[in-house]
């Protein structure tokens, strides 16, 4: 019965869309967002470029993208050659009206900066009460990509502990792992859920057997935590 309930907890639906914290941006080029998109599967068709560095100015919504061959420095008619179409994709994006500003990103400048800022939504609502508290044991959402199978878990097999609760809007939570090591960044309420089974850990593999005992590797843990347990301890 417990095994079934743990499985149900791991496969509980996880939401992809939810409210996030707002950025307080005062003008052009004050804050940029950047991300490194992995394009390794298509590198042979794109002059050995493995990554795409994408950057967007949060205020104007103007975007840049630069192909890079390593971290240190689209598909059409069956082709994955994105390198040649990248400039045109950016041109189209920067020439199209953005739904937030109502202006094409390429046309936002210091002359109309004040007008653009007036168009940003001003949503200030009181922070909700906290759903979780310091010390709660939780799992982290694992949003699937389109290639993952439906039977893979929606939530982490590893269990984390809530440390500080940050009174942002929405509220965010900081976590630490099994080794008491802080997890980078904060998590929204919707990205975590409290586990009903904080003392149950999943066995990845039985490595050895000896009478009524087995030597196991724990799912989500390094080999140094492999250990002997009684067979009757396995659900």
From TrEMBL:
Where is each Chromo domain found?
A: 201-235
PANTHER family referenced in this protein's UniProt entry, alphabetically: CHROMO DOMAIN-CONTAINING PROTEIN (PTHR46585:SF1), INTEGRASE CORE DOMAIN CONTAINING PROTEIN (PTHR46585)
GO-annotated molecular function: nucleic acid binding
Q: Which GO terms describe its cellular component?
A: chromosome
Annotated protein name in UniProt? Chromo domain-containing protein
InterPro entries in the record, alphabetically? Chromo-like_dom_sf (IPR016197), Chromo/chromo_shadow_dom (IPR000953), RNaseH-like_sf (IPR012337), RNaseH_sf (IPR036397)
Supply the source organism for this entry: Nasonia vitripennis (Parasitic wasp)
């Amino acid at each position: 019965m417990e095994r079934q309930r743990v499985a149900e907890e791991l496969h509980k639906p996880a939401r992809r869309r939810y409210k996030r914290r707002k950025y307080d941006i005062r003008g052009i080029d004050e804050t940029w967002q950047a991300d490194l998109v992995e394009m390794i599967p298509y590198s042979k068709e794109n002059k050995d470029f493995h990554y795409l560095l994408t950057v967007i100015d949060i205020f104007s919504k103007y975007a840049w993208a630069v192909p890079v061959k390593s971290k240190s420095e689209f598909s059409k008619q069956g082709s994955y050659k994105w390198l040649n179409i990248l400039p045109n994709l950016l041109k189209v994006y920067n020439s199209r009206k953005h739904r937030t500003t109502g202006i094409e990103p390429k046309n936002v400048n210091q002359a109309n900066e004040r007008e653009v800022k007036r168009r940003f939504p001003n949503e200030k609502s009181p922070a909700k009460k906290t759903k979780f508290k310091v010390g709660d044991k939780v799992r982290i959402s694992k949003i699937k990509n389109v290639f993952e199978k439906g039977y893979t878990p929606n939530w982490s097999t590893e269990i984390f502990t809530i440390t500080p609760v940050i009174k942002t809007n929405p509220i965010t939570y900081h976590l630490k792992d099994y080794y008491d090591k802080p997890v980078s960044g904060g998590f929204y309420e919707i990205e975590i859920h409290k586990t009903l089974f904080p003392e149950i850990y999943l066995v990845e593999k039985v490595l050895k057997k000896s009478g009524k005992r087995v030597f196991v590797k724990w799912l989500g843990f390094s080999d140094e935590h492999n250990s002997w347990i009684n067979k009757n301890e396995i659900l």
